[in-house]
Amino acid sequence: MRAALALVALLACSGEDTPVPEAPPVVPGAPRAGVAERTLKMPVGTPLGGYTARCTCLGNQSKIDDRQSNYNTAFVESGGVHTLPALDAIWLENGDDTLVLLKTDTIYPFDHLTRVVAERLTEATGQDLRGKVVHTTNHTHHGWGAFSDEEGFYLGTDRYNEEIFQRFVDQMVEAALAARETLQPVKLGMGWQKDWDPTDLVYRDRRGVNDALVVNDPEGNPLPTGKDPYLGILRIDTLDDQPLAVMVNFGMHGIVLDVDNPLVSSDSGGAVETALEETFDQPVLVMFTQAGGGDASPGGRQDGYARVETVGDLAAPLLRDLYDRVPTSDQPVRLESFTWNIPQDLDRVHIDRNGTVDYSYLPYEEARVDDGVVYNPDGSLAMPIDEFNTQFGAAFCGTGDLDLPVGGIATSTFPYTNCMEVAFLSTLIEVFFQLEQGEMPLPVPHLARAAAAATRIGPLATLRADGSTGDDDQLVGWIPGEPTAMYVSMFRARAEQEHGYPHAMVVGYSMDEEGYQLLPEDWLMGGYEPDISVWGPLAAESVQETLLEGVGSVLGSDVHEDPDPWGLFGATPYLDRPLPELAPDLTPTAGTRLEVAPAYLWTPGGITLDLAIPAAVPRVQGMVQIAWEGGDPAVDLPTVTVERQEGSDWVPLTTHAGRRITEAFPDILLAYTPDPLYPATAAQTHQWWAAWQPIAHVRDRSGLPLGTYRLKVQGQTYAGGATTYPWPSTPYEVVSPTFEVVEAALDVDLATGGLSVSIPARSDGFRLVALDGDAQGDNPIVGPVGVVIETPAGPVAVADVPVTTDGTRSFVAVEVPADATVVTVTDAYGNAGTWAP
Question: Which of 110, 233, 555, 708 could form an S-S bond across to 645 if both were Cys, CB 3.0 to 4.6 Å?
Answer without folding.
Answer: 708
